[in-house]
Recover the amino acids of this structure.
């Protein structure tokens, strides 16, 4: 019996941490700024656990029955936390209120668990041994789940199934305790009924997990969902309406097939056409292969290296029958080498130089992305350019995120680049910005490869003209130790959303 309860400590510690990780991950997916989300959720959760530990002093009778009921409550609340939060967000409910209310409630209940277990076990151990055994197993459970969550649970089970599975584990701990102490529980039948009901509810949730996810996403995305996948790095969703395919990463639109050519022609051709005879090209990000498609229009290009963090993205766009026609099967070209790695680390570890570099990362919605827009990253970038080479950087919207746009421009200038900012209108996004970074003064191209649908030599000059409402503004330099760009970006896009 004693060993069974100690094993229960390991399980409940694992369950307690998993709900915290799920809440932080969900908030990061849906609200962005992962540092803020994880920091506030962890703080709230630990505070709630402290409240629970303090409240445990008032549980003076029926310790075993109360422990069983607390486990059942944690299992139901924690188990259904991810599906409930997804649905609340999708249906436009008070997501932040629900998020922190759930974190607070689960934290209080988890804070009650360990003190009650220690009081139940106090007859079996000396105090010093009791504390040592219980806390050791508590910390070991936390370590185990902290390793399993990013490696196995989130990418393979998804957040909904993970929360429901660990909710079921909590309930099974309650059922186990019920069986172990059945002779000491006068309300055995009543508690047994509660355990059975909770187990059935969570099993039903596991069976319906995909339907719950689909229900939430059907509300989030107005068009038909044709593909979904949760990788270790992001939630990938592909939707379709008539001939319009749209890619969303963590709920953020990445492109619409109806107008993506505007974005990718503007991204690639003003820079690459101005580097005569470019042979070696590097693409950082851009796992959809759409920028690679434009690069392969140049006969001089002999090799394209694509570095994208997520192998699921490059695999999807190299094989999906709806997507390979869109990028003209660019990722399967013999000229293309795909490397799935962190771009920052890859640049640090690689000594190759390139005639042209395309930097096509998602917007700096959090600090892990923001580091790819810092002066430290741009210094690395500069080392990988040939003497006459050029780089182009996706630079967010100069209209909706004006200070963010010019922060990126100023950060590129700070490392010694000649910078040429420009913009293009993309209906799915509005005005969108780019920045050319060169070692030498840039010369406007006098020709483009055939087959372009948006750019012409005559219209190129207009891309480099900024009206007053998109003109330069004062900004700080984005550095690794301040990540000011993430703050600019979050503030500006929150204003747009209001």
């Amino acid at each position: 019996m004693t060993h069974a309860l100690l094993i229960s400590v390991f399980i409940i510690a694992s369950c307690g941490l998993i709900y915290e990780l799920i809440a932080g991950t969900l908030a990061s997916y849906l609200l962005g700024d992962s540092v803020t989300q994880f920091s506030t959720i962890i703080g709230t959760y630990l505070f709630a656990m402290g409240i629970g530990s303090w409240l445990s002093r008032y549980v003076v009778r029926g310790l075993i029955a109360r422990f069983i009921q607390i486990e059942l409550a944690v299992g139901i609340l924690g188990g259904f936390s991810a599906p409930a939060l997804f649905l609340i967000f999708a249906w436009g409910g008070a997501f932040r209120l629900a998020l922190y209310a759930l974190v607070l409630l689960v934290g209080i209940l988890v804070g009650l668990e360990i003190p009650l277990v220690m009081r139940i076990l106090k007859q079996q151990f000396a105090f010093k041994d009791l504390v040592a055994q219980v806390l050791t197993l508590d910390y070991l459970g936390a370590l185990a789940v902290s390793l399993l969550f990013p490696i196995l649970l989130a990418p393979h089970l998804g957040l909904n199934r993970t929360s429901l599975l660990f909710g079921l584990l909590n309930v099974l701990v309650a059922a186990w305790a019920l069986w172990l102490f059945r002779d000491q529980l006068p309300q055995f039948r009543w508690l047994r009924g509660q355990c059975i009901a909770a187990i059935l509810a969570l099993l039903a949730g596991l069976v319906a997990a995909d339907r719950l996810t689909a229900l939430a996403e059907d509300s989030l995305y107005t068009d038909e969902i044709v593909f979904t996948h949760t990788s270790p790095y992001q939630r990938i969703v592909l939707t379709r309406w008539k001939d319009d395919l749209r890619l969303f990463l963590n709920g953020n639109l990445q492109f619409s097939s109806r107008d993506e050519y505007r974005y990718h022609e503007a991204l690639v051709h003003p820079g690459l056409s101005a580097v005569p005879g470019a042979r070696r090209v590097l693409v950082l990000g851009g796992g959809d292969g759409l920028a690679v498609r434009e690069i392969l229009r140049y006969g001089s290009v002999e090799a394209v290296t694509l570095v994208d963090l997520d192998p699921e993205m490059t695999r999807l766009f190299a094989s999906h029958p709806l997507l390979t026609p869109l990028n003209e099967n660019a990722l399967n070209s013999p000229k293309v080498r795909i490397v799935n790695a962190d771009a920052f680390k890859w640049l640090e570890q690689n000594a190759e130089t390139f005639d042209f570099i395309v930097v096509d990362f998602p917007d700096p919605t959090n600090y892990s992305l923001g580091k790819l827009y810092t002066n430290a990253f741009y210094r690395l970038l500069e080392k990988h350019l040939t003497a006459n080479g050029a780089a182009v950087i996706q630079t967010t919207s100069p209209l909706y995120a004006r200070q963010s746009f010019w922060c990126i421009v100023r950060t590129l200038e700070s490392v010694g680049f000649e910078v040429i900012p420009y913009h293009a209108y993309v209906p799915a996004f509005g005005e969108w910005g780019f920045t050319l970074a060169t070692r030498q003064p840039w010369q406007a191209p006098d020709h483009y490869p055939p087959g372009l649908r948006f750019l012409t030599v005559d219209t190129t000059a207009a891309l480099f003209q900024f009206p007053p409402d998109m003109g330069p503004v004062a900004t700080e330099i984005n550095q690794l130790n301040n990540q000011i760009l993430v703050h600019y970006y979050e503030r500006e896009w929150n204003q747009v959303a209001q």
Observations:
- The chain has a mean pLDDT of 89.
- DSSP finds 17 helices and eleven strands in the chain.
- The CA atoms of residues 348 and 380 lie 7 Å apart.
